[in-house]
Design goal:
Layout (H helix, E strand, L loop, with lengths): L1 H12 L9 E2 L4 E2 L1 H20 L12 H16 L7 H24 L3 H28 L7 H10 L9 H20 L4 H21 L2 H18 L3 H20 L1 H14 L10 H18 L10 H7 L14 H34 L3 H20 L10 H14 L12
Antiparallel strand pairs: 1-2
Helix pairs in contact: 1-2, 3-4, 3-14, 4-16, 5-7, 5-8, 7-8, 7-15, 9-15, 10-11, 12-14, 14-15
Length: 422
Amino acid sequence: MIKILIYVCIITSMIGSASVFAIDLGIIQLSMFRASILFLFLYIILKILIKNEKIRLNSKGDNIYSIRFMLIWVIYAFFSLAWVRDYNAWLKAMFYLNIGLIIFIIFPKYLKNKFDVLLAFRLIFIMALIHNCLGWYEINTGSYLFLETEKIAAYTRVSAPVTTFGNTNDFATFMLLSVWISYICLNNAKNLILKLIHMFSMISSVLLIISTNSRAILLGLLLSTMAFIVLSMRRKRTRNFLLMILGLVFFIILLNSDIIINIFTSISNNLSFNFSSQSGSVFVRINLIKNGLHFLISTFGFGVGAGNIEHWMSNEAIYYTEGIINMHNWWLEILVGYGLLIFVLYLLFYVKLFKSTYNKIKYSRNAVDMSISLGIMCFMAGYAIGSVSSSSNINSEWLWVFWGLAVAYQGISENKSDRTFA
């Protein structure tokens, strides 16, 4: 029963914006995901009370640091109440951090093997495929089913997809995940038709990323592709996969070379930066960083407190940001919001998670482990840069779910029969 509820949470988190298919309760939007995670949490608490069970974490598991870090992050954020200035924003940030903590504790407890995680990724793939179809529908029809009315005209002019995410940057971040979820499912599909569907989804997701004109995600896609090549070349199966992709690209060029030329032209145009400009997105982002570092120094390295960056940016900024008050940089959001201590611990969490996942691909000859590990690592490599695209990622519930799955997979022990030191 608990596993079923977890999978329901995973599916509903991938819907996108919390305001889609949600009930407005005044103080909160009760989305399908939030209702699911609340029901899951209450069900487990009730089970603990009735059967006197305890949630025991494996203190020797590779993911114990990840779980402890999340707990420390929540505790630090809670005590930042002592110096925050915007209590409503603090409460909102605490809400999302506690969702993350619940996921980090529950997922590793009940998703006990790689096939549980693989099933979760297959469910995510279904939702990613739906978002792919919606994205192409928006591009080709100019009809936006889930976008706020006042934004439709602007997105229609540039034919940019957003689906349920509300903006192109959040959608592009999800498409980056879609690329590597599709890869995982492709490598574990037994049916030729399913393999073709997964291949289509990978290519479609890449093209949709390009259509969003999100420079950070484009850079993230390039970095994750480089990581894929470096990490996987020693595996024969992956070399064959790369050759198949190159063959497909060559076939497309033979049919219509303009497609590839247009793609590379679009990428080149989107990845041009002008750091000397006194206006535009690059200028604003630089000033956001300057303001953030100024706030960090002003708070003696403790950070402005959970959810309070926007308040400080509105009232204490010394560099002009054209009215933009979100940090637009996940790494700086953690550093400025929660201080040096949490930032360093978060970096350690990221490195340890990547290293643990790398060890699985390094010492395993199991195809499931290899594909899941490679998919997670490639997304992490791309996210390291792509995470600076969105205004804030703390309220992206689907991201918390992905990290929860990654941490759950991190804690799964390998069978000795799956290990090789070749």
